[in-house]
Amino acid sequence: MQQTPPHHPTDSRPVSPPGSPADAAKARVRPSGARPMGSWRRALPWWLLAAVLVLAFAAWGASADEVLDAAREWSLRHRAFVQANAAACWLGMLAAGSVAINCPIPVAALLKVLAGFFFGLEAGVALNVAMSLSGGLAGLAATRHLFYRSLHARFGRTLAKASLEMARNGFWYVLSARLLMVTPFFLVNVAAGLSGIRKRRFLLATGLGVLPSSFIYALTGGRLEQVRTVSDFASSDFALAMGLLAVCAVLPALARRRG
């Protein structure tokens, strides 16, 4: 007499015959570690853009003396016009700097030097701080309200650590980033836009953080007429300003440790 196999009540899944559509569907499933070719194709334009930016930045650094010569000659030719229309030119440079400060290539640094050349130390520092505030707010607002979905989908994982740190210690994170100037200015704006930091805290940290560098840029611009190469900017005043910047960069860490 043939015995029937014991029935297991926990195994109630239907068994599909070989060659069924279910087996074909399983065969089409990719392994968990495999990445679709489409993702590489979608990422290719971003890699090309990054390569172009790296090459542009390298070319900018290699031709720093030539850029300085061109900027000095242009500034000397237009200094009388700027002085005759100081208010309009101040506002025009503010608008241009607000846009340039969100550019990966450091065009805004040149504008901040020119601010010190055209308007002097006090007005140059004020213009540089205003550029940073308006440009930072524009970058944060554009990231948060216009490009949040696309940027979060593309760079969310890359900036996840920075966004988490900014959500926890937003004020101190932004202040340290502005003082140290290691992280590009526009990347801090993007990370802030992807995080939940309040705009008021972001602006306060940005304003305080860019004060030392704004002073250095304006001080450098005051000597633009005498310099011929980038190394000519080195002076006792410049060394003192850099030392002040280094001291200011340590203050946020000390304040956080005490808090």
What does this structure look like?
The radius of gyration is 27 Å and the shape is elongated. It starts with 20 loop residues before the first helix and ends with a helix. About 75% of the residues lie in helices and about 0% in strands. Helix 4 (about 85-100) packs across helix 5 (about 105-145) and helix 7 (about 160-180) packs antiparallel against helix 8 (about 185-195). With about 260 residues, it is mainly alpha-helical. The chain has one domain (about 55-259). The longest helix is centred in the middle third of the chain and has 39 residues, at about 105-145.
**Main structural class:** mainly alpha
Which percent bin holds the helix content?
A: over 70%
Compressed to H and E, one letter per element, the order equals: HHHHHHHHHHH
Q: Oligomerization state of this entry?
A: single chain
Mind summarizing the main beta sheet?
none
- In whole angstroms, how far apart are the ends? 83 Å
Total beta strand runs: 0
Q: Identify the overall geometry.
A: elongated
Overall average residue pLDDT: 74
Low-confidence stretches: 24-30
Give short descriptive properties of this protein.
single chain, 259 residues, mainly alpha, 11 helices, 75% helix, 0% strand, TVP38/TMEM64 family membrane protein, membrane, transmembrane
Write the layout of secondary structure elements.
Elements: H1 21-28, H2 37-62, H3 64-84, H4 86-100, H5 107-145, H6 148-155, H7 160-180, H8 185-194, H9 199-209, H10 211-221, H11 236-258
Helix pairs in contact: 3-4, 3-5, 4-5, 5-8, 5-9, 5-10, 7-8, 7-9, 7-11, 10-11
